[in-house]
UniProtKB/TrEMBL annotation:
Intracellular or extracellular location(s): Cytoplasm
Species of the source: Streptomyces pacificus
Gene that specifies this protein: priA
This protein's UniProt keywords: Amino-acid biosynthesis, Aromatic amino acid biosynthesis, Cytoplasm, Histidine biosynthesis, Isomerase, Tryptophan biosynthesis
Main subcellular localisation: cytoplasm
Reactions catalysed: N-(5-phospho-beta-D-ribosyl)anthranilate = 1-(2-carboxyphenylamino)-1-deoxy-D-ribulose 5-phosphate; 1-(5-phospho-beta-D-ribosyl)-5-[(5-phospho-beta-D-ribosylamino)methylideneamino]imidazole-4-carboxamide = 5-[(5-phospho-1-deoxy-D-ribulos-1-ylimino)methylamino]-1-(5-phospho-beta-D-ribosyl)imidazole-4-carboxamide
InterPro entries: Aldolase_TIM (IPR013785), His_biosynth (IPR006062), HisA/PriA (IPR023016), HisA/PriA_Actinobacteria (IPR010188), Isoase_HisA-like (IPR044524), RibuloseP-bd_barrel (IPR011060)
Active site: D12, D131
GO annotations of cellular component type: cytoplasm
Superkingdom as given in the UniProt entry: Bacteria
Pathway it works in: Amino-acid biosynthesis; L-histidine biosynthesis; L-histidine from 5-phospho-alpha-D-ribose 1-diphosphate: step 4/9; Amino-acid biosynthesis; L-tryptophan biosynthesis; L-tryptophan from chorismate: step 3/5
Protein name: Phosphoribosyl isomerase A
Keyword check for Isomerase: yes
């Protein structure tokens, strides 16, 4: 039986609040209140995963480390933690939350030797976020160019990276649908599982992503669509359950 698509509802934290951004751009925030309440809402709705992002740490405008640790610690589900994890101290703090895995972004572009080391040391606990405009990677909270997607993917594959979280920044927070072509291309370029992120707007988008599971898409992060109540998480889980 084909594996079902995993769903990862997102809680992005900025200034202590759960927010959504458009194209990941600082200053486009819509606030949705308490991150803990949001996370508990997704957990109560049956989520198996939470995608938890410290946006301040990603942008270099401070951090929400204690709050993120509180949210991660309150969860019974699996947590993928992202945002500003770039060195031994931030990685240790992230892993100490008890999260299931962390998502490295900027570090994979700027300190590849360190990333190779932590992949070798932590294996499945490390995913790399490939955040792209076209086929150009972006780091530092998606504000700086960081090289070619496929060259970086080949390097990370050779270093044993366990999985990738692939975001088309042009789609993120826009409710315009995921970039299925990009996901197909990435899946064709790697045998590692891919988590799709950005742009999900409808249950049909989720069904389309579920159709890519045989190609290597393992999961889908869903943010804005849940906060905008385009559908409920229960409906989303049902839509990808078969
Ligand atoms: O994940 C990061 O490190 C990050 C850094 C800078 C800006 C945004 C960042 N993440 C955003 C997300 O992970 C979104 O929650 C996710 O792509 C959901 O997108 P959508 O469903 O389109 O709201």
């Amino acid at each position: 039986m084909a594996q079902k698509l995993e769903l990862l509802p997102a809680v992005d934290v900025r200034g202590g609040r759960a927010v959504r951004l458009v194209h990941g751009e600082s200053g486009t925030e819509t606030s949705y209140g308490s991150p803990l309440e949001a996370a508990l809402t997704w957990q109560r709705a049956g989520a198996e995963w939470l995608h938890l992002v410290d946006l301040d740490a990603a942008f270099g405008t401070g951090d929400n480390r204690e709050l993120v640790a509180e949210v991660a610690g309150a969860m019974d589900l699996k947590v993928e933690l992202s945002g500003g994890i770039r060195d031994d101290a931030s990685l240790a703090a992230a892993l100490a939350t008890g999260c299931t895995r962390v998502n490295l972004g900027t570090a994979a572009l700027e300190t590849p030797e360190w990333v190779a080391e932590v992949i070798a040391e932590h294996g499945e606990k490390i995913a790399v976020g490939l955040d792209v405009r076209g086929t150009t990677l972006r780091g530092r909270g998606w504000t700086r160019d960081g090289g070619d997607l496929y060259e970086t993917l080949a390097r990370l594959d050779s270093e044993g990276c366990a999985r990738y979280v692939v975001t088309d920044i042009a789609k993120d927070g826009t409710l315009q649908g995921p970039n299925l072509g990009l996901l197909r291309d990435v899946c064709a370029a790697t045998d590692r599982p891919v988590v799709a992120s950005g742009g999900v707007s409808s249950l049909d988008d989720l069904r389309a992503l579920a159709g890519l599971v045989p190609l290597g898409v393992e999961g889908a992060i869903v943010g804005k669509a849940l906060y905008a109540e385009a559908f409920t998480l229960e409906e989303a889980l049902e839509a990808v359950s078969r």
